[in-house]
Specification:
Strand content of chain A: 25-35%
Helix content of chain B: over 70%
Order of helices and strands of chain A: EEEHEEHEHHHEHEHEEHEHEEHEHHH
Shape of chain B: elongated
Structural class of chain B: mainly alpha
Number of strands of chain A: 14
Structural class of chain A: alpha/beta
Shape of chain A: elongated
Strand content of chain B: under 5%
Number of helices of chain B: 14
Strand order of the largest sheet of chain A: 6-7-8-3-9-10
CATH topology of the largest domain in chain A: Rossmann fold
Radius of gyration of chain B: 23 Å
Oligomer: heterodimer
Radius of gyration of chain A: 22 Å
CATH class of the largest domain in chain A: Alpha Beta
CATH architecture of the largest domain in chain A: 3-Layer(aba) Sandwich
Distance between the termini of chain B: 39 Å
Chain lengths: ~325, ~280
């Protein structure tokens, strides 16, 4: 039995000219919650597709739950669960029928007691006979997690589990994900572009940008690397990098969008000088980033996470919105 | 921890189980049942399925009612006095099997676009299992038309010849035809994710196969090139088998054999195509 639920070495996926995943090495320990944090288009979903056998790697190898993803994808699939970014259920079927179908697809014979237990755990028991098309967003998400857990998987993949959800549902899901991890003893690999989500849930985080792991460790380890604050401000005024770097405490300056990101020793020390350097009202917005996973990302890539992927068209989100509009 | 230790549990070629086979019966049953549930829960689908054959018989079947008997006999090359409706019934049933694959491939494309295909393929379910369940599912949906059509035919006064064995053979041939065409349809659209594809393909194949067959008119009246198509057209096999039973009370079992070969070929080739090219999303 390997110690790690997921191991990858040199995992690479190339689509035409685009290298979506670029020589990724990873170890996910059993029973942990591992987060892939990065902007849209960084390659997080592609990594999940590779590890779940939906897509073949161009190069490299990986094992999930002890099985090789290339040679034994079917054995991998018997041991994994999957929670999609957009909730994917058969809306024409009832909750119980969705569970029944999942049981058939996973070749389970003795599943009803487990299904009832999951429905109780997720508080869905009294709606199990209703079509899932009539469920609320939170209930649908819970139903999807129940499906992912039905066959007692060793690893559950969650692709952007809280994307597009309102803050209340998000918090409820965070609680559920940590609860599921603890009580059902499953390893969770989740992707997210929400800093606070990775910070709140994951015991290990890998920061990913343009298909590469740029940093990995526990959130505390990652934050401890950063001894600087970041100042992120917008201005219409013309200013050069050299001018900004001459301000007291500024270590680096990167242009971003309509403004700049400054790496500084201490935000409190630099702020008065920053305002003094500009005419009144020329600075429209200032954001102070104390050491956090966000500042780790900024430190390594020179960009904010929500900016880095802004140039990538996110078709998935588009379809998600189309589906919402239809419902 | 050394790399060797980390990789210690990996099944390498030459050691440990190398087979990746997982039996597919349970998955097939689940997916096929899902197709049926979805069909029979949709009242509109059922209504159209039931009404369509009725309309064929009512409108097309009545279009020769004022033609003098002698002229009709000459046209149909059938025993004297055979009503067009009797002649038409097996043909309409055969042509209705042409389009049933369209539903299966439309629902496959819907599954791809809504991500359901991903949900299925992230379980130990093979692409060929998905394909076969869809093909059989849409063939089954098409079969629903047969009893409705037969009842309608009786209402419209079709006289029935032949014995129960012949009837069973004819109906079995229809099932083979429907299964073959839905297998064909799903294989052709396996890699498609576009809503429009099934409709376009349906229009493209339905028209020539419907008319270049003995389904609606006797092929003897056709020009040579259309007769050539009609001779190898599986729609003809089913129509001629059924016409023998309904009109003359005879069955040419060779046609059933041809239909068996057609279905086996379509399903076999289709399974190979789908296991390689069935797209996930």
């Amino acid at each position: 039995m390997p110690d790690d639920a997921i191991v990858a070495r040199g995992l690479t996926k190339v689509y035409g000219k685009l290298t979506a995943v670029d020589h990724v090495d990873m170890n996910v320990r059993r029973g942990g919650i591992f987060g892939l944090l990065g902007p849209n288009g960084a390659g997080k979903t592609t990594i999940i597709k590779l590890l779940t056998g939906l897509s073949d790697p161009t190069e490299g190898e990986a094992s999930v739950a002890g099985f090789d993803i290339r040679r034994q994808p079917m054995h991998v699939k018997r041991r994994i669960g999957w929670v999609a970014a957009e909730v994917i259920l058969d809306d024409d079927l009832s909750g119980w029928e969705n569970l029944w179908l999942q049981a058939k697809l996973q070749r389970l014979t003795d599943w009803k007691a487990r299904a009832e237990e999951l429905l109780r755990y997720f508080d869905l028991s009294d709606r199990k006979g209703d079509r899932v098309g009539t469920y609320s967003t939170g209930m649908r998400k819970k139903m999807e997690i129940a499906l992912a857990l039905l066959h007692q998987p060793e690893v559950v993949f969650m692709d952007e589990p809280t994307i597009g959800l309102d803050p209340n549902v998000r918090r409820m899901l965070w609680k559920l994900i940590t609860g599921v991890n603890r009580e059902f003893g499953v390893t969770v690999l989740l992707t997210s572009h929400y800093i606070e989500e990775a910070d709140a849930l994951c015991d290990h985080v890998a920061i990913i940008d343009r298909g590469r792991f740029v940093a990995a460790g526990t959130p505390a380890e990652l934050k401890a690397r950063i001894r600087n604050d970041f100042l992120d401000f917008e201005t219409a005024a013309d200013v050069s990098e050299a001018q900004l770097r001459s301000l007291p405490g500024v270590v680096e300056a990167h242009p971003q969008g309509k403004g700049w990101i400054l790496k500084v020793g201490s935000a409190e020390e630099t702020l008065p000088h920053l305002f003094a350097a500009f005419p009144n009202g020329a600075i429209q917005r200032v954001n102070i980033e104390k050491p956090s996973l966000e500042s780790v990302f900024i430190d390594i890539t020179g960009k904010r996470i929500d900016q880095a992927g802004a140039d990538v068209q996110d078709f998935r989100k588009f379809y998600l919105n189309v589906r919402r509009a239809r419902q | 921890m050394t790399a060797a230790h980390r990789f210690g549990g990996w099944p390498r070629s030459g050691d440990g189980p190398t087979s990746d086979f997982v039996p597919q019966g349970s998955q097939f049953y689940g997916l096929y049942a899902r197709e049926l549930i979805k069909t029979f829960r949709n009242p509109l689908v059922l209504l159209i399925t039931f009404v369509q054959p009725f309309m064929w018989l009512a409108f097309f079947g009545s279009s020769f009612s004022a033609v003098p008997v002698a002229q009709l006999d000459a046209l149909l090359k059938a025993p004297p006095g055979t009503p067009y409706l009797d002649f038409l019934l097996p043909g309409v049933l055969a042509t209705s099997m042409l389009t049933i694959g369209m539903f299966g491939s439309m629902s496959t494309i819907q599954d791809k676009r809504f991500g359901f295909m991903k949900r299925v393929l992230l379980t130990p379910t093979g692409r060929s299992t998905v394909y076969l369940s869809k093909a059989l599912g849409s063939a089954t949906r098409g079969m629903v038309q047969i009893p409705v059509m037969l009842a309608a035919a009786l209402v419209f006064g079709v006289r029935i010849h032949g014995d129960p064995l012949m009837w069973a053979g004819w109906l079995f041939g229809l099932i083979l035809l429907g299964f073959g065409f839905s297998a064909f349809f799903l294989a052709v659209t396996a890699s498609s994710t576009d809503w429009q594809t099934p409709g376009v393909i349906s229009n493209f194949i339905t028209m020539p196969l419907m008319f270049a067959s003995g389904a609606l008119f006797p092929a003897q009246n056709y020009p040579a090139w259309m007769q050539a198509i009609a001779r190898v057209n599986p729609v003809s096999f089913s129509a001629l088998l059924g016409r023998g039973v309904v009109v003359n009370g005879t069955a040419n079992w060779l046609y059933l054999g041809y239909l068996g070969v057609f279905a086996a070929l379509m399903v076999g080739v289709g399974t190979l195509v789908a296991s390689r090219y069935l797209k996930v999303e």
